[in-house]
Design goal:
heterotetramer; A: alpha/beta; TIM Barrel; 16 strands; B: alpha/beta; Rossmann fold; six-stranded antiparallel β-barrel; 6 helices; globular; binds flavin-adenine dinucleotide; binds flavin mononucleotide; binds FE2/S2 (inorganic) cluster
C-alpha cells in the first residue's frame, strides 16, 4: 500500500519527492536510469519568456558538502518548453511543475498566462535566482516586490501558484507572508545561498560569474530552519528543499513543516537519490505504523 | 543507457609520478562504451564526481581503463583506491569519437594527461593510426607501449627534449602532415594545443575532432553547468561538454583567449 | 624571516591567524597542545556585563561539514574576564581581542568602557549572536541599530573597535557601511548562519534552543562571498572567518579581502588547525616569493 | 596534557552485534590516562569527533582500549577501522574516577554501553570490586570475562532474563547493599539508571560517582557546548561534561525529567 502519496495544494502526488528545478532538466537524461513515473513530480528547469544562453563557464565550483552554480537560467524559452518538452513529459505519469522566471513583473505574468491550458500541474514562480541580473533575487528580497509579482501572476494563472523563496534575506517569514497575502497557493524554499570560491593559484574566482548559488547538504540546516519558520508563519503549504540527500533528511524536512520535498544537488552525486528517498520514506511509514506520510508534516515538537 | 554502480578494480598501476592506471570490471559499461567517452567517478568525501576519460575498453574482459593524474584533493583520494576496491562510477557518458570506416588513416594527438583517450581511438585504426603525444619531460611520459602494441606509429615529444623529440606536438604534427595527410585527426590536451591543432587542420582541410574539458556536476546533460561556446552555421551558442561533447568537431569550437 | 606578520587596524599581529570567539575559551585548554605565542592573537569567548549561564543543553548538533551551536554566550562576566582571564592571557605573547555583547546599547558601551585601561588590544563588538534573545542578532540585522550601537561604543572606547557582523541579512554591505559610518575601525565576519536539526526518532529539535548557529567548512563559500562584498564596500579592514579549516582556505579568504582571519569550528576537528594554517601561509609566501602576506589581501581579480 | 595524534590499532574484536573493542597503541596517552577518562575520536567524513570512554589502560603495553557501539553514522564509520589502521584521537580527556585507597570496597555499575568504563575502574579494586552490569538481553552482554579476570564479583542482569538475573541493575544493587555496603559506587549508563542509583546511594549514605554523556564539540572545555546542570552548596549552575566531568559526584548532578 502506498503510504507516501500526498495532496499538495490540491494536486495529488504519488509521493512527495520531486527533483528540484535546474537539477533534472526535463527528465530526459535521468530517464536513462529509471522511469520518471517513480517520481512524485518534476520541477523542470527554470523557463523564461525567451531563449536564454545563461552565464559563461565555468559555472560550477565544488564546496565542502556542496557546490556553487552560476548557470543563469539557460533555457530554450517557454514556447520550446510547451511545444517540445511538455508533450514528452505528459506521457511520463508524473506531476509537472513549471518553474518560471521573468525579468519584469509583466514577463512573469505573461509566462504564467502562456502556461494556462497546458498540461502543467502547478506553477513555481522563481523570485530567488541569484544568478541573473534582472528579476530573480531582486524580486525575492523585497516584501513589496515579492508581493506584487505574486499578485500579477496569480491574477492571470489558472494553475496552483507556488512561489519559490530566496534564503538570502533577513526575514524569510516576512517574504512568505507577503506572497501568501498576495495569493500564493504555496511556497517552496530554499533557493541557493549566494557564495563564492577563489582559485588561489590564479587568484581569480572559480565561477566566471564571480559568485554563484550554494546548494547541497551544506545548506540543509539552514533550509530546515527556514522551512520550520515559514511553516509556522503561513497557512499555505510549504515545499521544502535545500540539501536533502537521504530519506532521513526528507523526513526531517517534513517534520519541520514541508508537505513535499524537492531534491537537487544530491542527484549529481547519486542519480538514484530521489527514488531511494521515496523508497526510504515508504519503509519509514511501514516500520513506524504511519498510515500516510502527510501525518508527520510539521509535527516537530519544539522545546 | 547510462549506468551507475560500484565496480571492482581488477588492476592498478602507477604509470608515472602521480599518474595511475586502473582497470575496472564493469561488463555492462564496457559493452556499450566507445572511445572518447568518459566516466563520472565518485571520490569519497567529495561532493561532485570527477570526469575521467575512458582510456581503453576491453569488451571481452568486460573492463574499462581509466588513467588519471593527481591534480587536487579528489584525484588524490581516488589514487588511494587499490585492486579489489570498489569504485563508484557513472558511465559511459558523452558522445565519443567518430570512427571512420576501415582503411582510413588517423592521427591521434595527446598532450599530457590528454593522452589517455587516444589509446581507445588509436586502437580503432591500428596500423593506420599515428599517435603523437607530448609531455613536460621524460618522467611524465605515459602509455607509449600501449600505442606501440596497437601497431600505431608512435611519436613522442617532450618540452625539454628529455625523451623523444624536443618540441611541441604541433611541430611533430606539421612534420607528419608534410609526409602524408590523414583522413581524420583526434586531439585532447590543453586548450592552446587544441586551438593550434584546429588551425593547422583548417589550413590543411583535414577533419579534426577535439575532446574538451569543463567543470561538471551531473555529467549527463541535465544541470547545464559544463558550458562551452560553439558555433554552427555561423550561429554562436552554448553547448555542454558532458552531453554534446566531450568530443566536438574542431570547427565548431570557439577558442577564446 | 616572518612573512606573515600583519598590521590590522593599527595593531601588529605576528601572524594573521586568530582563533574565533567562543571556540577557544581563553586559551587555557589549547595551551596544553601548543604555546599560545604561536597564534597571531586570540578572540576570547564573548563577554557580557554580568555572568551568563547560557542556554540549556544539548547545545551542539552535527551537520554536513559543519555544526550548529546554541551556547548562548555563557561566560563569567566582564569583571571575571578582566580580573581572572586577562592577567593570564597577557603573559602569553599574543594579541588579545575582547569579544563583547550586550543586551542593550548602554550595556555594550559600559562593557567597552570597562575594558579601557586594560591590556586588551582590540574590541570585537558582537552584534550578531543568533543564540540570545536580546541584543545579538537583533542589533546586527538592522542598519540603524547596528550604527547606533557602534557609535555608542566608539564614543567611549579607547581601543580599536571591530564590529562583528551577522550573515543572516539581506545586505551585509549595508550593515557594514552603517557601522563604518558610525566609527567602526574594522569589521569581522561572518558570525554563524541560523540553522536547525531535528531528531527524526524523537521528533524534537536536537538543540534545546530549537535553532542554533551554523559554522564550519559548510559555510565557507558564503563567508568568502560576504568578505569579498564587504571589502569592496568599506574602506576599513575586514577580518574574515567562517569555515576556514586549511591554509588554502585562509589564503582564499585573504584574497577575497580579509586582512586577517579567524578560525573557529575547525579547531574542534583539529586542535592544531590555527598553527598549521599559519605555517602553511608562511610556506605559501616563501614558495611564491611573497615578501609579506599583506600583499595578497583583496587581490582577487573578478571576471 | 592532552595529546592528539593518529595511533595504530593493534587489535580489534567484535564483542556483540554492533559492539567493537579496539586496542590502540599510544604509549604517551596510556601513561597518563586514568579510569573514567575518555577520548575524542575522529570518524572520517564527519565533522565532529565522537567521545568514547577509555575502557581499559595497559601502561606496560602502552595501549588503551575503546569499546563502542554502532549508534549512528559516525560510529558506523569507526567500526570499519581494522587492525593496523590508524585512528585519530585526542586523549586523555576529562577528570576520570576518584580512586580510594587500597582495601576499600567498590561497586561498579554499568548499564548497556555504559559498561566499558567499569573495566578500568574495577581493575583498581580487583577482588574488592563488585561489578553489576545490565543489558537488554543475552546477545548484548559484553565484558563479563574482563570483570572476572580482574577478580571482581561479577553480577550480570538482563532486562528479559535471557542471561544472568532477570531484572534491572538497580534491583541487583539493592540486593548487594543488603549484604554489604561499599565505600564507593561508580555508575555509567542511561540517565534514568543513574538517577535511581543516585537516589539509592543517597538513602544509604554511600558516596557515588556517575559518568555522564552530552553531545560535544571540542572535548576539552573550550567551546562550552557540553553543558549539564549541577548543584553545589545549594547553588545551581552549568558544568561541562568534557572538562568538569564526565565523572561527577552523584549529589552534584541535577537529574531532571
Ligand atoms: C571529459 C573530461 C575528461 C577528463 N579525462 C581525464 C583523464 O582521463 N585523466 C585525468 O587525469 N583527468 C581527466 N580530466 C580532468 C579531471 O576531471 C580533473 O583533473 C579532476 O576533476 C580534478 O579533480 P581534483 O579533485 O583532483 O581537483 P580539484 O581542483 O580539487 O577539484 C575541484 C573541482 O574542480 C573540478 N575540476 C578541476 N579541474 C578540472 C578539469 N581539468 N576538468 C574538469 N573538472 C575539473 C573537479 O572535478 C572538482 O569538481 C577530464 C576532464 C573532463 C571534463
Ligand atoms: C564522555 C562520553 C563517553 C562515552 N563513552 C562511550 C563508550 O565508551 N562507548 C560507546 O559506545 N559510546 C560512548 N559514548 C556515546 C558515544 O559518544 C555516542 O554513541 C556517539 O557519539 C554516537 O555517534 P554516532 O555518529 O554513531 O551517532 P550520530 O547520532 O550519527 O551522531 C551525531 C552527533 O551526535 C553526537 N551524539 C549522538 N549520541 C551521543 C551520545 N550518546 N553522547 C554524546 N554524543 C552523542 C555524536 O557525537 C555526533 O556529534 C560516550 C559519550 C560520552 C559523552
Ligand atoms: C545547477 C543548478 C541549477 C538550478 N537552476 C534552478 C532554476 O532554474 N530555477 C530554480 O528555481 N532553482 C534552480 N536551482 C535551485 C534548486 O532548484 C534548489 O532550490 C537548490 O539547489 C537547493 O536544493 P539542493 O540543495 O537540493 O540542490 C538550481 C540549482 C542547481 C544546483
Ligand atoms: C561553539 C561556538 C561558540 C561561539 N561563541 C561566540 C561568541 O561568544 N561570540 C562571537 O562573536 N562568536 C561566537 N561564535 C562564532 C564564531 O566566532 C565564528 O564567527 C563562527 O563560528 C564562524 O567561524 P567558523 O566557521 O570558523 O567556526 C561561536 C561559534 C561556535 C562554534
Ligand atoms: S555536467 Fe551537468 S550538463 Fe554537463
Ligand atoms: S565539548 Fe567543548 S566544552 Fe565540552
Amino acid at each position: 500500500m502506498n503510504r507516501i502519496n500526498v495532496n499538495f495544494c490540491g494536486v495529488e502526488f504519488k509521493n512527495p519527492v520531486i527533483p528540484a528545478s535546474g537539477t533534472f532538466g526535463y527528465g530526459r537524461e535521468y530517464e536513462q536510469f529509471y522511469p520518471l513515473s517513480k517520481l512524485g513530480g518534476i520541477s523542470v528547469k527554470g523557463t523564461t519568456l525567451h531563449r536564454r544562453e545563461g552565464n559563461p563557464g565555468p559555472r560550477v565550483a565544488e564546496t565542502p558538502s556542496g557546490m556553487l552554480n552560476s548557470v543563469g537560467l539557460q533555457n530554450g524559452g517557454v514556447d520550446k518548453f510547451i511545444n517540445y518538452e511538455l508533450p514528452n513529459l505528459v506521457t511520463k505519469d508524473t506531476r509537472i511543475i513549471a518553474n518560471i522566471a521573468g525579468s519584469t513583473v509583466e514577463e512573469c505574468a505573461e509566462l504564467a498566462e502562456k502556461l494556462n491550458g497546458t498540461a502543467v500541474d502547478m506553477i513555481e514562480l522563481n523570485i530567488s535566482c541569484p544568478n541573473v541580473k534582472q528579476g530573480g533575487a531582486a524580486f525575492g528580497t523585497d516584501c513589496n516586490v515579492a508581493g506584487a509579482v505574486t499578485r500579477a501572476v496569480k491574477d492571470v494563472t489558472e494553475k496552483p501558484l507556488m512561489v519559490k523563496l530566496s534564503p538570502n534575506v533577513t526575514s524569510i517569514t516576512d517574504i512568505a507572508r507577503s506572497v501568501e497575502a498576495n495569493g500564493a497557493d504555496a511556497v517552496s524554499l530554499i533557493n541557493t545561498l549566494l557564495g563564492m570560491r577563489i582559485d588561489i593559484k590564479t587568484r581569480r574566482p572559480i565561477l566566471k560569474n564571480n559568485v554563484g548559488g550554494l546548494s547541497g547538504p551544506a545548506v540543509f540546516p539552514v533550509a530546515v530552519r527556514m522551512v520550520w519558520q515559514v511553516a509556522n508563519a503561513v497557512k499555505i503549504p510549504v515545499m521544502g528543499m535545500g540539501g536533502i540527500a537521504t530519506w532521513e533528511d526528507a523526513i526531517e524536512m517534513m517534520l519541520a513543516g514541508a508537505g513535499a520535498v524537492q531534491v537537487g544537488a544530491a542527484i549529481f552525486a547519486d542519480p538514484y537519490a530521489p527514488v531511494k528517498i521515496a523508497e526510504g520514506m515508504q519503509r519509514f511509514c511501514e516500520e513506524n505504523g504511519i498510515a500516510n506520510i502527510s501525518e508527520i508534516v510539521g509535527t516537530v515538537k519544539p522545546w | 543507457m547510462y549506468k551507475q554502480g560500484k565496480y571492482p578494480i581488477v588492476s592498478k598501476k602507477a604509470l608515472a609520478k602521480g599518474v595511475f592506471d586502473i582497470e575496472i570490471y564493469c561488463p555492462h559499461i564496457a559493452k556499450e562504451a566507445r572511445a572518447g567517452q568518459f566516466a563520472q567517478v565518485a571520490a569519497e568525501g567529495f561532493f561532485l564526481r570527477r570526469p575521467i576519460s575512458i582510456c581503453d575498453i576491453d569488451k571481452n574482459k568486460g573492463t574499462i581503463r581509466l588513467v588519471f593524474e593527481v591534480r587536487g584533493h579528489g584525484t588524490d583520494k581516488l589514487s588511494e583506491l587499490n585492486k579489489d576496491c570498489l569504485i563508484d562510477i557513472i558511465a559511459p557518458l558523452g558522445n565519443g569519437f567518430k570512427v571512420l570506416e576501415k582503411g582510413k588513416k588517423a592521427i591521434c594527438i595527446g598532450g599530457g594527461i590528454g593522452t589517455p583517450p587516444m589509446v581507445g581511438i588509436a586502437k580503432e585504426y591500428g596500423e593506420n593510426a599515428t599517435v603523437i603525444s607530448g609531455f613536460r619531460n621524460a618522467s611524465a611520459v605515459i602509455l607509449q607501449e600501449d600505442f606501440k602494441a596497437i601497431g600505431a606509429d608512435t611519436i613522442l615529444c617532450t618540452d625539454d627534449g628529455s625523451a623523444g623529440i624536443h618540441g611541441f606536438v604541433t611541430d611533430a604534427f606539421k612534420a607528419e602532415l608534410n609526409k602524408e595527410k590523414p583522413d581524420i585527426v583526434y586531439a585532447c590536451g590543453p586548450m592552446v594545443m587544441l586551438k593550434n591543432i584546429t588551425k593547422i587542420c583548417e589550413e590543411n582541410g583535414i577533419y579534426c575532432q577535439v575532446s574538451l574539458e569543463q567543470r561538471m556536476a551531473c555529467g549527463v546533460g541535465a544541470c547545464l553547468v559544463c558550458v562551452c561556446r560553439t558555433v554552427k552555421d555561423g550561429q554562436e551558442f552554448n553547448s555542454h561538454v558532458c552531453k554534446d561533447g566531450p568530443v566536438f568537431d574542431s570547427k565548431e569550437v570557439l577558442f577564446h583567449e
